[in-house]
## 1
Amino acid sequence: MTTTPTPRSFLPLTSAVFQILLSLVDSTRHGYGISKDVAGRTAGDVTLGPGTLYGTLNRLVKSALVHEVESHDLGGDDDTGAPRDDDRGRRRYYALTPLGRQVVALEAARLEQLVSLARAKALIS
């Protein structure tokens, strides 16, 4: 008998998982788009190599936190990961599932609580 995992059962998230889920909160992206978003958002402090990125994405799909989206369902044509006409069918696009959104929100709240504790101890201002 298999039990359905709860959002809390995924916590704590690894840095790579958190960054990938955070990247998908506001946009459907392909792997390269996720990698560029993470590097840009963290000013290059976090970079996801191809092995980490695609291995993590595969696990997230299996865990139902992320799902693949058919490129013909997408529109657009920019560097954020939206498909261009010439790459349809070649790239895999990923989107957050409702469970994935719950999990990343819970992790953000957990991290916020840790930062509050660090501030209370005067470790950071």
## 2
Amino acid sequence: MENLVYAYLGDAVYELYIREYLINKGFKKVKDLQQEAIKYVSAKAQCEILHILENKNIFTKAELDIIKRGRNSHSHSSKTTDIVTYKESTGFECLIGYLYQNNKERLEDIMKEVISYEGNN
């Protein structure tokens, strides 16, 4: 599968995990869910979470290679963020999509780390 296809899948999987987490956390109103979700799913938040997890040495060498390939893929530009942030978040989504297809147990481990993030975006 191509890296951008993994990123496309990863975007949906990642958002589903975050939405489910927030619903289970007790948010009931869609407006509140959306405001909280942005703290996790925006390109800026994903880029920040990626760097936090990298600094915690969460990723294997193979996972870092997947992130790098996703980050370096040719994609369209973003209207809402700079190109570096957008590419970093694309690399992260690529990993999420890859793990969803190939290693759901590892995906669960990474998503547990992600939901422990309490950003203030």
## 3
Amino acid sequence: MISRAYKSSGFSMIEVLVSLLIIVVGVLGMVGLQSKAIPYTQNSVQRNTAIMLADDLIELLRSHPDCNSSTCSKAPGTAFPVTTGACVPTPTAINDQLACWAGQASNALPGAGALLLKSFYICWSTVPGDVANCGSGKEIEIQLAWTVKQASDCMDANDSTSTTCTYKVRTRL
């Protein structure tokens, strides 16, 4: 009776290998999730930065009562104003404030400096997305852009082949 209890106690080699296989599959699954989480986190941080920059721009435009489609707009393909002085303290002229904001956006979003001309815009329009007719309307549409390393890192639903991500917001001042 003692020898039978001695033989049945403990684990066999097959049981150890099966439990090791289950642990390895679980760890590999967690590694796969981690590799997917990094691009999502980076996209979230960049998108939040773009949201804060757009909010800053909207508040900047709201703070100027004389701001309209001719004084506070930037069509795609046109340049932001160039500042004539320092950004600290905050300048009083709207063009200088827009120039300072563009510099801030260029520093905050990756690759935004190269995209300021063609991908950023401040468009007054009546129809969402109608950037060809900027300057007519009471609503303002703002687009910001930044670059990512791979097209799959950009979580935009519009284009899955571009390494340029965009954020658009539309509001009435």
## 4
Amino acid sequence: MMSRDWKTVLAEHAGVVGRLDAAGETLNRIADAIIACFRDGGRVFLFGNGGSAADAQHIAGELLGRYKLKRAALSAMALTTDTSTFTAIANDIGYEYIFSRQIEGLVRPGDIAWALSTSGKSPNVLNAVRAANERGALTIGFAGESGGELAGLCTHAFCAPHSASDRIQEAHELAYHYVCERVEAALAG
């Protein structure tokens, strides 16, 4: 593939962002669910692969640490950070269970499992969402425009309007920062 110029890439990005107008209602429902979860003493568990793993850690940091406001810590954890645990699970049980096994041990009814997958098809992510649903957790999915199988498994799904992982992840970042801002504003007082 030939490298594209900056203006072409920027125009593609702007096109994706321009198509996010309709996402506000979905993102507000996601934020409201997270606010209710935290108010009820629940926890948020985040997971994904590759860049989505980095996003899961980023979101957990915004919630547990802080986004913009001084406030109490919120119970959020990325399931991608304990390398000893997930490599043991991958080695002993199978890579497709690295998240679902952690969900089985950690998630309680009323918690939230937040899955990120640009394709919406990652077997380890799908297994974790199924496990979370079985445990009575509310499930949130962030995927690309098709939603893959992920969107249909989740209580709430945000599907970025593009098929390329870089544009999807850029839309995800904008969306989850909006969610974090809403959650923090509701819980800072």
